[in-house]
TrEMBL record:
Keyword annotations: DNA-binding, Methyltransferase, Restriction system, S-adenosyl-L-methionine, Transferase
Pfam families for the chain: N6_N4_Mtase (PF01555)
Top-level taxon of origin: Archaea
Organism whose genome encodes this protein: Halostagnicola larsenii XH-48
EC number: 2.1.1.113
Gene Ontology terms describing biological process: DNA restriction-modification system; methylation
SUPFAM superfamilies per UniProt: S-adenosyl-L-methionine-dependent methyltransferases (SSF53335)
Catalytic activity: a 2'-deoxycytidine in DNA + S-adenosyl-L-methionine = an N(4)-methyl-2'-deoxycytidine in DNA + S-adenosyl-L-homocysteine + H(+)
Protein name (Swiss-Prot/TrEMBL): Type II methyltransferase
């Protein structure tokens, strides 16, 4: 199986290289309005934003920044198939302007924008992204009432394009082989992900202006979302590509990807990141298998035996829908004019002594 990964250095407010109804899933993390690290980027898109910030008009700046994101959301409505899913990772912002401190609710503004474009909001996910400071408050310290709660979570907002779910031909291999384990379903489809944490990005050897515009999320987030909301053969779009975490997850998950990014410096970062994607993809699949085996052993210790057998791996499963689960690993990566072509092969069963460490 071959997947393609197109990379475009361009403005995602006009996704001219992406055809109508050609994307099944969007997974992205846009620049967050009212977070200072992205002020310059937003000001380049609309100089009125700088004027609003300088005058202390935070609400005007907030709305003007979101107006730029709205143009991207317009394009997502066009390129997503009916029933396609958009997963938007975003955090709220806190800021003091003109001596007034407040929160700017980015998640609420993004949700409103998608609803206005005909998307159906689905239950969202919270994941914890601890602040660097050990302090758990802002404001007046130990004396009430003027301290403020520290924001330590981000949202994955989930929307469906249109009111109908996607349909598939009966018994579609690309869907059933992309199944997840029963216990993964229970862990992934919960509204709070407590075990996923923020992580440092390996950007030591990139220019300062590129590093300053990186806000990449952990690989675990897009990888899970790809497994949850797409099948083999699907295409995932990231209109705010950054260091390419979504495309890296797509390679590991055996999906196609498209990435839009304004900074061409991130392309070299991505080339370094995928230098060992074959090993990474193999480790991801084998780790999932090993965790499932540990789950089975715990069930057996409690006197409960799973009812079905997996077709491709020597392991029992809880439900018939899991029986055909089959992971993919990267065999070869070829650089192309458009991005990358990746050859995948089925992940085979290996003796425990030879398996990659998790």
């Amino acid at each position: 199986m071959e997947t393609t990964h197109r990379l475009l250095v361009d403005d995602s407010r006009t996704l001219t290289a992406v055809a109508d109804d050609s994307v099944e899933l969007v997974v992205t993390s846009p620049p967050y309005p009212m977070i200072e690290m992205w002020d310059d980027l937003f000001a380049e898109l609309d100089p009125a934003i700088s004027s609003a910030l300088e005058s202390g008009n935070g609400q005007a700046a907030f709305e003007a920044m979101h107006a730029q994101l709205d143009r991207v959301w317009d394009e997502l409505e066009r390129v997503l198939v009916d029933g396609g899913i958009a997963c938007i990772n975003v955090g709220d912002a806190t800021r003091t302007l003109d001596d007034s401190f407040r929160v700017y609710p980015n998640h609420a503004r993004v949700t409103d924008a998608f609803e206005k474009r005909g998307f159906d909001p689905l239950p969202d996910i919270l994941w914890r992204k601890p602040a660097n400071s050990a302090a758990k408050f802002m404001g007046s310290g130990m004396i009430p009432p003027n301290a403020y709660v520290t924001l330590e979570h981000e949202y994955v907002l989930i929307f469906r394009n249109g009111g109908d779910r996607r349909t598939f031909e009966p018994g579609a291999d690309r869907r059933y082989e992309a199944a997840y384990f029963w216990e993964e379903r229970n862990r992934w489809f919960t509204d709070v992900w407590t075990e996923v944490r923020g992580e440092l990005q390996g950007l030591e050897n990139v220019p300062d202006d590129v590093r300053e515009r990186s806000g990449a999320y952990p690989l675990e987030i897009p990888y899970r979302l790809l497994c949850m909301y797409s099948t083999y053969g699907d295409t995932v779009l990231d209109p705010f590509w950054g260091t390419g975490t979504t495309s890296l997850a797509a390679m590991c998950a055996g999906r196609n990807s498209i990435g839009y990014e304004l900074e061409d410096g991130f392309l070299d970062v991505f080339a370094d990141r995928i230098s060992d994607v074959d090993t990474l993809s193999r480790s991801v699949g084998r780790t999932r298998l090993e965790r499932h085996r540990e789950f089975v052993e715990r069930r057996r210790a409690d006197g409960e035996e799973p009812s079905y057998e997996a077709s491709h791996y020597d392991v029992p499963v809880m439900t018939k829908m899991e029986s055909d689960i089959r992971f993919r690993e990267v065999e070869a990566v070829e650089r192309t004019d458009a991005g990358y072509a990746v050859e995948h092969v089925p992940l085979e069963e290996v003796p425990e002594s030879r398996s990659d460490s998790a």
